[in-house]
Amino acid sequence: MDRLLIVEDEIALAEGLKDNFEFEGFEVLVATDGETGMRMALAEKMDIIILDIMLPKKSGFDICKELRARGQGTPIIMLTARTEEVDRVLGLELGADDYVPKPFSTRELIARVKAVLRRSRDKREKQTNIYNVGKIKVDFEHYIAYDRDDHQIDMTFKEFEILKFFMMNKARTVSRDELLDKVWGYEIYPTSRTVDNHIVKLRKKIEEDPETPRHILTVYGIGYKYIE
Fold it and tell me: What is the chain's Cα-based Rg?
């Protein structure tokens, strides 16, 4: 069940929206001023927030800005009677996901909420294949790696596969033979020296100091261990 927070000072409107969204299967919380809304947004795990701009005690703009500054990524739909384009643009620039001016159709608002939730889920699903590995970010779905400045760096297919295997076996000692089996396979079976050469190259790409690695550790006489 999706959890929805409505921050709206028009009590009749807030209660009407609450009833309609509960009918659609949402769990709904309501705040009627900005400070209460801010506290609830931080304290409760919400899936989406409907946020009026003109609120007592703290404006919707301020709430949106503060939530995003705190790293809060919960989708936000701004709801307001103000229709000037500058307000709409400001809300979106502050991190809102959509903007619905009053008066509005409740059916349209429900459709907007569901659409934003779908986009949010799609985005999260796409991001699940992107991992921080040492000093780089790795997209295992598209086999792309980036440095901290989001510049793409060169990595071979085998380097991606070794990293993926390490991450599936975090903190477990993996032998050279196991890496050869799982990454190269039986049909193409190089020597254990090939593994060592690939590890040296990987360390140069992901470690701050490849000579003193913190992530891909050597377990002498056996193989390697990956530590996050």
Answer: 25
What is the Cβ-side half-sphere exposure of residue 200, based on CA atoms within 13 angstroms? 6
In this structure, are 28 and 101 located in the same domain? yes
Q: pLDDT tens digit string along 44-85?
A: 889 999 999 989 999 989 999 898 888 788 899 988 776 566
Q: How many domains does the chain divide into?
A: 2
Structural domain of residue 90, as residue ranges? 3-127
With 0.70 as the threshold, say if the pTM is over it: no
Q: How confident is the model at residue 6 (pLDDT cuts 50, 70, 90)?
A: very high
Same domain, 119 and 167: no
User: Which H helix or E strand runs over 152?
Assistant: strand 152-153
Among 88, 108, 127, the domain-final residue is 127
